[in-house]
């Protein structure tokens, strides 16, 4: 991996792409430190007490939510908009047709996702502004102050969406994923400093720190294993004679990943599980709000159980959307391919559905277990001030692997181009 990265830096085109990506990530990190006008940040700090759902959301935002900067909402509205558009693609026939129209259809769906991002950002920013107004955290109370906060936060999210798309187009890797990656990695120095201060103060001992490091290494190995794990279904293509040429006859495989859904179910489940607390925060004196805050507080058994099973359910749901066994079976039959021992068509689709279901069971349980890992780690190490997130490790490792694969693909393509020129 390091050798490929060194080779990429030596190639002018790839070096320009890498430098452009780093420049865009620098813009993101600079924006994290730009405060939102009219917000008294000191009055927002209590929301980010240890173990709250806001600490998880602030981790994705790279610390921007705790300081209520212009990038406080990060890219979350864009992710939610993308999920909603993908769900609507299954329900609305017109959107399903666009998804099958190739590049032009995908461009229209991307534009629809952008509009959805603006709407989602306005709704989320309006809720944040309303909450800050009720908490007395606005310098200009009332509608004018809330409007300034809502517009600023929405503009910040739209700017991040543009930055992510520029990285995807002109840089290396998926821009949206790299923004989340940069936000999570940027919190690492702060966590190390906090851990060092706790050690000097005597709050934790060396054994607890070593236990935390060992658990982190075990989780990283497990994440890499599951992220790279796949079931390969063998496929054989029959020979076809077209004119004087013979096509087909080769063997290949269909790779079915263990974690087919990625981290999308985790992000979506975190948004839903935090909804009761958000609603309760608007009405702190109401009896039902106190009931929700008591039973659905982050880390309570009920909250953890709901979060766990929401992730499992969304993993199955998202996998069913992104992987359609019937379409794959139809494409195999169309191009003369078949799975050895199975008839083309319906038997092939049923077999693929069974395989995907069995694999998704393991992937969904692993994803849910990794997501509730911070609660388990705090119970084992008794270190409550450090957010040890399996979700964060899952994102960091997955994005790093995917980015390096793209660099390797660029290097391989240039090798083939050089061979053809000779």
UniProtKB/TrEMBL annotation:
Domain of life where this protein originates: Bacteria
Membrane topology recorded in Swiss-Prot or TrEMBL: Multi-pass membrane protein
GO cellular component, one term: plasma membrane
Protein location: Cell membrane; Membrane
Keywords assigned by UniProt, alphabetized: Cell membrane, Membrane, Protein transport, Translocation, Transmembrane, Transmembrane helix, Transport
GO biological process: intracellular protein transmembrane transport; protein targeting; protein transport by the Sec complex
Record flagged with keyword Transmembrane: yes
SUPFAM superfamilies, A to Z: Preprotein translocase SecY subunit (SSF103491)
Stored Gene3D superfamilies: SecY subunit domain
Transmembrane segments: 14-32, 44-65, 112-132, 144-163, 175-193, 205-226, 263-284, 304-324, 355-377, 383-404
InterPro entries according to UniProt: SecY, SecY/SEC61-alpha, SecY_CS, SecY_dom_sf
Coiled coil: none
Assembly and binders: Component of the Sec protein translocase complex. Heterotrimer consisting of SecY, SecE and SecG subunits. The heterotrimers can form oligomers, although 1 heterotrimer is thought to be able to translocate proteins. Interacts with the ribosome. Interacts with SecDF, and other proteins may be involved. Interacts with SecA.
Family: Belongs to the SecY/SEC61-alpha family.
Role played: The central subunit of the protein translocation channel SecYEG. Consists of two halves formed by TMs 1-5 and 6-10. These two domains form a lateral gate at the front which open onto the bilayer between TMs 2 and 7, and are clamped together by SecE at the back. The channel is closed by both a pore ring composed of hydrophobic SecY resides and a short helix (helix 2A) on the extracellular side of the membrane which forms a plug. The plug probably moves laterally to allow the channel to open. The ring and the pore may move independently.
Protein's name in the database: Protein translocase subunit SecY
Name of the gene encoding the protein in the UniProt record: secY
């Amino acid at each position: 991996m390091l050798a490929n990265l060194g080779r990429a830096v030596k190639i002018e085109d790839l070096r320009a792409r890498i430098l452009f990506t780093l420049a865009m990530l620098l813009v993101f990190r600079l924006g994290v430190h730009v405060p939102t006008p009219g917000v008294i940040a000191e009055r927002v700090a209590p929301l980010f007490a240890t173990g709250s759902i806001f600490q998880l959301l602030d981790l994705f935002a790279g610390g921007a939510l705790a300081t209520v900067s212009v990038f406080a909402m990060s890219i979350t509205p864009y992710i939610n908009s993308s999920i909603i558009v993908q769900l609507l693609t299954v329900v609305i026939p017109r959107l399903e047709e666009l998804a099958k129209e190739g590049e032009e259809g995908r461009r229209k769906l991307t534009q629809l996702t952008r509009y959805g991002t603006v709407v989602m950002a306005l709704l989320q920013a309006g809720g944040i502004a309303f909450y800050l107004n009720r908490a007395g955290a606005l310098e200009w109370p009332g509608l004018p102050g809330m409007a300034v906060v809502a517009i600023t936060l929405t503009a910040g999210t739209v700017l991040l969406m543009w930055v992510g798309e520029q990285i995807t187009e002109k840089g290396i890797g998926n821009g949206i994923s790299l923004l989340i990656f940069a936000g999570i990695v940027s919190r690492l120095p702060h966590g190390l400093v906090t851990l060092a201060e706790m050690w000097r103060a005597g709050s934790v001992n060396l054994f607890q720190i070593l236990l935390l490091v060992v658990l982190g290494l075990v989780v990283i190995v497990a994440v890499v294993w599951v992220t790279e794990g796949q079931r390969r279904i063998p496929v054989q293509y029959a020979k076809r004679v077209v004119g004087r040429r013979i096509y087909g006859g080769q063997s290949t495989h269909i790779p079915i990943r263990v974690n087919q859904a990625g981290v999308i179910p985790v992000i979506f489940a975190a948004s839903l599980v935090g909804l009761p607390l958000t609603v309760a925060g608007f009405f702190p004196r109401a009896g039902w709000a106190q009931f929700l805050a008591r039973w659905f507080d982050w880390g309570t058994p009920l909250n953890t159980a709901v979060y766990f099973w929401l992730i499992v359910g969304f993993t199955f749901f998202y996998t069913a959307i992104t992987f359609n066994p019937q379409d794959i079976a139809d494409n195999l039959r169309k191009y003369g391919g078949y799975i050895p021992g199975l008839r083309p068509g319906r038997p092939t689709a049923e077999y693929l559905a069974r395989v995907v279901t069995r694999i998704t069971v393991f992937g969904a349980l692993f994803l849910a277990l990794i997501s509730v890992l911070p609660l388990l780690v705090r119970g084992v190490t008794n270190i409550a001030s450090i957010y040890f997130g399996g979700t964060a490790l899952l994102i960091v490792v997955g994005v790093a692997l995917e980015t390096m694969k793209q660099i390797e693909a660029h290097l391989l393509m240039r090798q083939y181009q050089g061979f053809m020129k000779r």
